[in-house]
Amino acid sequence: MSKGIPSASKVQRPEHIHTISGVPIEPVYDPSHIEAVDYVRDLNDPGQFPYTRGIHQNGYAGKMWTMRQFAGFGTPEETNERYRQLLAAGGTGLSVAFDLPTLMGRDPDHPLSLGEVGKCGVSVASLADMERLFDNIPLSAITTSMTINSPAAMLLAMYLVVAEQQGVDWQEISGTIQNDILKEYIAQKEYIYPPGPSMRLVTDVFAFCGERVPRWNTISVSGYHIREAGSTALQELAFTLRNGIEYVQHGVDAGLDPDKFVPRMSFFFNAHNEFFEEIAKYRAARKLWSHVMRDRFGARDERSWKLRFHAQTAGVSLTAQQPRNNVIRTAVQALAAVLGGANSLHTNSLDEALALPTVEAATLALRTQQIIAHESGVTGTVDPLGGSYFLEKLTTDMEAGAVEYFQTIDNLGGMVEAIEQGFPQREIAESAYRFQKQVELGERDIVGVNVHGDNEELGVETLYINEDVSERQIAKLNDLRRTRDANRVARSLAAVREVALSKTNLMPSLLEAVRAYATLGEICDALRDAWGEYEETPTI
Amino acid sequence: MRNIRVVIAKPGLDGHDRGAKVIARALRDAGMEVIYTGLRQTPEQIVGAALQEDADVIGLSILSGAHNHICPRVIELLQTKDITDVLVVVGGIIPDVDVPKLNELGITGIFPPGTPMQVIVEFIRQHVRPAASAR
Prior knowledge:
Chain A is α/β, with parallel strands linked by helices and about 550 residues long. Chain A has helices at about 40-45, 60, 75-90, 100-105, 125-135, 150-165, 180-190, 195-210, 225-230, 235-255, 260, 275-295, 300-305, 325-340, 360-375, 390-410, 415-420, 425-440, 470-485, 485-500, 505-515, 520-530, and strands at about 15-20, 25, 65-70, 95, 145, 175, 215, 220, 265-270, 310-315, 345. Chain A has 22 helices and 11 strands. The longest helix of chain A is centred in the last third of the chain and has 23 residues, at about 390-410. Chain B has helices at about 20-30, 45-50, 65-80, 100-105, 115-125, 130-135; strands at about 5-10, 35, 55-60, 85-90, 110. In chain B, helix 2 (about 45-50) crosses helix 3. Chain B is globular and about 35 Å long. The interface of A and B includes residues 228, 320, 355 and 440 of A. Chain B: This is B12-binding domain-containing protein. Chain B: Its cofactor is adenosylcob(III)alamin.
């Protein structure tokens, strides 16, 4: 008998078992646990309010999830090549990872961009880079998701101009910008401006796309980063949906009809290790959102009630030790997302605790989804776990817990106020520390880390980002600055600054600045001049 | 002998601060005095904070791949200011191929994802420069 594996006769259930989020789990569940559940009221058939079992009547038999692999690194030329490989391998959508200078609205030659250009994603400094990124990729034939938040409106403007150049009507294109600034203050911390003007940028995008780009998903309200920062599953669910409520409220306050913009809102959740708890989270999310939209906001269009979501497997669960184990973790997490009815999915690569993924690792991650879709048989029946005593109990508890958090945040005056008081940030930091302590005390096992870690480790090949990306991007930027119409750039930036101080929708002036080949840093600086920058008080 | 004083810093543009915050609390629970700089600190600001706080240790949290630019700059600034008794450690996503380069700079405490907090506490206790603790 190998070390660490007790013989079967000695196996005893520990007195207390908790999910990864700290929820106590009983040894067995029976009908008494779900006595209060009413089928039609709480679950109902797939495609029927409150959509607990899914938003589509036929589930994946009607519409397979989109296999959308997040990718981006180095120069736009290099990433363009990777995109073409992913599409050739059967990927059905693109998902752009931008580098940190782009995410923070800084040009590659800004001092704070030192060492960051092209590292965590692709560098896009102006329209010229966006043209290179989608060179020979017809925007009419694909949908593109862009993980961009503070400068989301600017990158959307660049994408729209590329579509225009390709002769593709804005009415026809589809895709998503993340555009979720609230979770940046809460978790990922890639904010530029204070909350007030940041929220105005978000609602300007809602209004503009509602009129001009009707198939665009204007926001992806994201729990992913909240979970990665260390929250529990419940906190992820509650804070994300409460952020969603905050956006709808701001849209309504800006004079928009919820049924005009909410159908284009989408969500983004983590798919973590705790299999059943994750599935319960997705089901509770759909139920909660349908009620919030119908009962709190009085939305009448069914599409406003239906929560659509993208899922990504948990990057934070991947280990640098024994990296091949990460393939298995990702497969289990992806299966949870599928059984929870994800509308779109990204599976992480095995090497992501070490570096950005190699093309081989990224392909294997895509294959994982394809095997679930084509070989496992789980797609033939909608919500196949519905009715499980355990799952329904978890779903009910998850919903109740989220409603409690909504109440707390409402009492604080809303999410913007709660963020300014540091409430969600503190809750997440507590959970992160509690989890780490459990691992160290041996209360939580991680294979290859604190159990079964004594075998010889097999390394994996990792992707290396050339250090010359920065030089190449800066050289192209200098060329651009020499050859563009400097007067048009200056005029367009002055207009952006002026509109920022008015109540007029910013999108038209951003589009003009983009067309003039103003750089992302220049456009963001014009708004920094107008609005100032946000700084958080560091706390531990 | 006074407690070990640690400056935990997040250099660069990255905002992922889970690791930095968890480690800061672990070091504090282990009896060290911890100063967390907050986000987006330049090497100049970090070394300045270490000097001002009379720190024995600088802990850099870098997940973005900028370590090859930031670490040499921090070491260079310490040398310029003739500070020889501050231990520099790094946590985050550091590819294996970069480890020798960091070692050459004198950085041997390199902690990838999954490193137990206790390992980091022990490393600091064992490697903190004696001159500093006795100061």
